[in-house]
Design goal:
The complex is a heterodimer of chains A (about 260) and B (about 575). Chain A is mostly helical and about 260 residues long. Chain A contains ten helices and two strands, in the order H-H-H-H-H-E-E-H-H-H-H-H. In chain A, helix 2 runs antiparallel to helix 6, helix 2 crosses helix 7 and helix 7 packs antiparallel against helix 8. Chain A is flat and about 65 Å long. Helices cover about 35% and strands about 20% of the residues of chain B. In chain B, strands 6-7-8-3-9-10 form a six-stranded mixed β-sheet, sandwiched between helices. The chains are: A mainly alpha (about 260), B alpha/beta (about 575). Chains A and B meet through helix 8 and helix 9 of A and helix 3, helix 5, helix 6, helix 15 and helix 16 of B.
Chain lengths: ~260, ~575
């Protein structure tokens, strides 16, 4: 599977300052937490999807369709068993499912999907280097920002190595389709050990290459991409802050968008 | 001539290692010179490279004695990032050193560390991308580059830092022939009066253009001198694990005067000195292949990667018979590996059929298929996991449910065939690359598959290990295994494969006896390939033999006796 999410286009979203996009994602996260009614969260999700469309990046979302569907399905199935509501739909050996808890499950599923989509929107429209740059300018210490960016950068590399390792061991007769739990455990070592060792070698080598190019985490350095905050950035941040204020007002003063009170 | 790099009684051994990596190396490289460092794997070439910018001993630690001075800076006394202003180094594994997400950012990385202002960066990026020939790819995602392009980008990003010393550790390893040609011509271009070049390579053909050749053996600097002095001594360079130049070897074998370093020089020499009578080259007899029963068959096989826009394989019709020794040749991306992965069902064709012994591959259960077709991946480290060689080799047969007696016998036979008898209790992670490669082959062999596919089995191996690996495959072939080798090393196909298949853009361009395929240099050029120097000379002389010994025999029967000059 290809884990590179960046989608090289030249839309307005790609041109936003990375700081703006990081801030915007955080604002969307908080807006999501304002409501627990599925309809309200669905509206937020629809908004995020619309932005995806304007960023010409729906195909990035499509890559993760399975993950998104799984998140949703599990949430809808599991939440109702842990939450109590008034309108009982059915009872079975002490377990009960109410229409409120079912709707709450829907809401949580949609919320998870919105979280993942918003994060993906950032990754789809922002280069790894821009994210690092943005984090540093937001005051995150360089080593932390660099480590985070490196993790994002290396995920696809290790996934590729992992895929090759799986093929190599399957070629030797490793049967990944077997259902037996014990044999599943036995399958772990032939895959995990080469993946771990190749990751170790790779990172060690990378560290050598970085130092050889004069990189040191504590030294000042210039940046080839220098994002600028423009009027557009302020517009995006301003509208999202207004939206957040409006949502807080709806929830806290008008008590809208609530399925189960007292919960996020 | 001013000194640029000075090695003064340099010795080094890595932590946790008893054998020294470098012993008492002394020598000087002058400013503006081009030095080629050669030697067997484990001779200390990479270690030597890493001492120049201080990666050894500042990053890779161990016992260090002596001194290395580069442009007046003593490497061990400065940090690696400080040395980076003077010494640029392109490390061996180009995949791992490309870090940025697009080409221009990769070029900018070192410049950002030098705190260059943006405009100056942009100028250098444009200038040096042109030098390495990647100016069209400014905004490309680095993950989508070919191996050769990645290597050129790695070189370009170091060049942009404009260091007076440039070190490249095996820049042509693991690259297809066309990429290799690009890089060798790039190295030629990089020679200027101001820049000191240090390059390591496994291949003597790359060293011809150098000012100096340094030969390392077991950590010692065995010899240094001009290419014409070092490369003409076939015995010396072979003792250092370097394949002798074909032209020199042929002239030595024929007892001809002169030691030409290139095919062109050799051809001119033969013509001028009239070493051969005029002859009619077209009378070459190439024996046809005598195939056994069909074992692998593809019928109109096509394949498209899930995200791909074009077919990676298109209408492949191919039959491979029992007992064949086949080389699959072509550029990266020509479809060799994709095709081979159909042979053992790792990939499922999008159209057409893949048959193993006449039965569709998807009707086989995985364990059944593993007994028919074994696949050795390029990098042995992608499969080695067990604490001992014995367990590693026994993994396949054990999961296929072989009983204890058969298991032990198969392990012993596999180790014997790969020359690893006595290694049962050794830790595979502590073996050298050549030995790990053999462990990987043994672990496939232990299952006794009828067909063994090997993807680039000689990458990263020196000449001696390459030859050992190929001789082992030859023995296995004689024992009845069908061997399919995917390779970029032309001499391996020439010397060992009886049948060669040329691929280009997902199609088969040419398929036939190796001796015939390698006679057709136009077709090879169409697939962006060229025969080795030995076979180019063979074709020019119109010989039939594919090995040095056969060519000498053939020539001796008709050459002018040496007395008649």
């Amino acid at each position: 599977m290809n884990l590179t999410f960046y989608n090289d286009e030249a839309t307005w979203l790609h041109r936003l300052d990375p700081r703006t996009k990081i801030g915007a994602v955080l604002l969307i996260f908080i807006i999501c937490l304002c409501f627990n009614h599925p309809l309200f969260i669905a509206v937020i999700l629809a908004g995020v999807l619309a932005v995806f469309a304007t960023a010409k990046s729906i195909k990035v979302l499509w890559k993760l369709r399975i993950l998104l569907i799984l998140l949703f399905v599990f949430s809808v199935i599991l939440w109702p068993f842990f939450i109590k509501g008034k309108t009982i739909l059915f009872q079975w050996h002490g377990l009960e499912v109410s229409s409120e808890s079912l709707l709450y499950g829907f809401a949580m599923g949609l919320r998870l999907m919105t979280f993942v989509s918003a994060g993906l929107l950032l990754l789809a429209t922002t280069k790894n280097e821009e994210i690092t740059n943005g984090l540093i300018r937001l005051g995150i210490p360089y080593p932390v920002a660099f480590a985070l960016a490196t993790a994002i950068r290396l995920a696809p590399t290790f996934a590729d190595a992992g895929a090759t390792i799986v093929q190599a061991q399957v070629s030797r007769g490793l049967d990944l389709d077997s259902k037996n739990v014990f044999s599943r455990f036995k399958r772990f070592a032939p895959l995990a050990i080469p993946i771990f060792i190749s990751a170790m070698r790779y990172t060690n080598f990378l560290a050598m290459a970085l130092e050889s190019k004069g990189f040191r985490p504590d030294a000042p350095r210039t940046s080839y991409y220098e994002p600028q905050i423009t009027g557009r950035d302020w517009l995006v941040l301003g509208s999202l802050t207004l939206a957040l204020a409006a949502c807080l007002y709806l929830r806290l003063s008008l008590h809208w968008g609530i399925i189960i009170a007292g919960r996020l | 001539m001013t000194s640029s790099i000075l090695f003064d009684r340099l010795s080094f051994s890595y932590q946790n290692s008893t054998a020294p990596a470098l012993q008492d190396v002394s020598g000087e490289m002058t400013r503006g010179s081009f030095t080629m460092v050669m030697g067997h794997s484990g001779a200390g070439k990479s270690t030597l490279c890493c001492t120049i910018n201080g990666l050894v001993p500042r990053f890779l630690r161990g016992d260090y004695a002596g001194r290395v001075v580069a442009e007046g800076l003593e490497a061990a006394k400065n940090s690696v990032p400080d040395m980076a202003r003077t010494v640029g180094i392109v490390l061996q594994d180009f995949e791992a050193q490309i870090f940025s997400t697009n080409v221009e950012l990769e070029m900018a990385f070192g410049l950002e560390n030098q705190c260059l202002p943006r405009t100056a960066m942009a100028e250098r990026i444009t200038a040096y991308l042109r030098v390495v020939g990647l100016e069209e790819l400014l905004r490309r995602d680095t993950a989508t580059l070919s191996g050769g392009q990645k290597q050129r980008l790695a070189i370009g990003s170091v060049l942009a830092m404009e260091t007076p010393v440039l070190v490249m550790d095996e820049p042509t390893t693991d690259i297809d022939p066309e990429g290799r040609r690009h890089i060798l011509s790039l190295i030629r271009k990089l020679r200027t009066r101001e820049r000191t070049l240090v390059v390591t390579d496994l291949d003597a053909e790359a060293a011809v253009q150098a000012d100096q050749v340094w030969l390392l053996k077991e950590g010692r600097l065995l010899a240094k001198g001009k290419p014409a002095e070092i490369l003409t001594d076939s015995a010396l360079i072979e003792s250092c694990g370097v394949r002798p130049l074909a032209t020199v070897a042929l002239f030595q074998g024929m007892n001809w005067p002169g030691r030409p370093l290139t095919v062109e020089a050799a051809a001119a020499e033969i013509k001028n000195r009239r070493l051969l009578r005029p002859r009619r080259p077209e009378g070459r007899a190439i024996s046809a292949l005598s195939p056994g029963k069909a074992i692998l068959e593809t019928r109109n096989l096509s394949y498209r990667y899930p995200a791909g826009a074009v077919n990676a394989l298109a209408d492949i019709d191919l039959t491979i018979h029992e007992g064949e020794f086949v080389a699959l040749l072509g550029q990266n991306g020509s479809g060799k590996t994709t095709l081979a992965k159909h042979f053992n069902g790792l990939l499922k064709s999008t159209a057409g059929d893949m048959l193993v012994r006449g039965r569709p591959v998807n009707q086989y259960r995985r364990p059944e298929l593993a007994r028919e077709v074994g696949y050795v991946f390029q990098n042995p480290d992608h499969q080695i996991f067990a604490p001992t060689v014995g367990e590693e080799v026994g993994f396949g047969p054990r999961i296929l449910g072989m009983d204890r007696k058969a298991l032990e016998r198969n392990i012993a036979e596999a180790l014997d065939a790969t020359g690893l008898s006595g290694f049962e209790e050794r830790n595979p992670f502590l073996l050298n690359r050549g030995e790990r490669q053999r462990v990987a082959v043994a672990s496939i062999l232990a299952v006794k598959p009828a067909v063994i596919i090997l993807d680039e089995p000689t990458t990263g191996l020196d000449y001696v290990h390459q030859r050992d690996t190929m001789e082992m495959l030859k023995r296995l072939n004689q024992l009845g295994h069908t061997i399919i080798v995917i390779t970029h090393a032309m001499w391996i196909a020439e010397a060992y494969a009886r049948r060669s298949i040329l691929m280009k853009e997902g199609r088969i361009l040419l398929d036939g006896p190796t001796a015939a395929v390698f006679s057709d240099e136009t077709m090879l050029a169409k697939a962006s390939l060229a025969p080795s120097d030995l076979i180019r000379l063979r074709n020019r002389l119109g010989l039939a033999g594919m090995t040095l010994a056969d060519m000498v025999k053939e020539l001796q029967s008709e050459a002018v006796p040496p007395g008649s000059f």
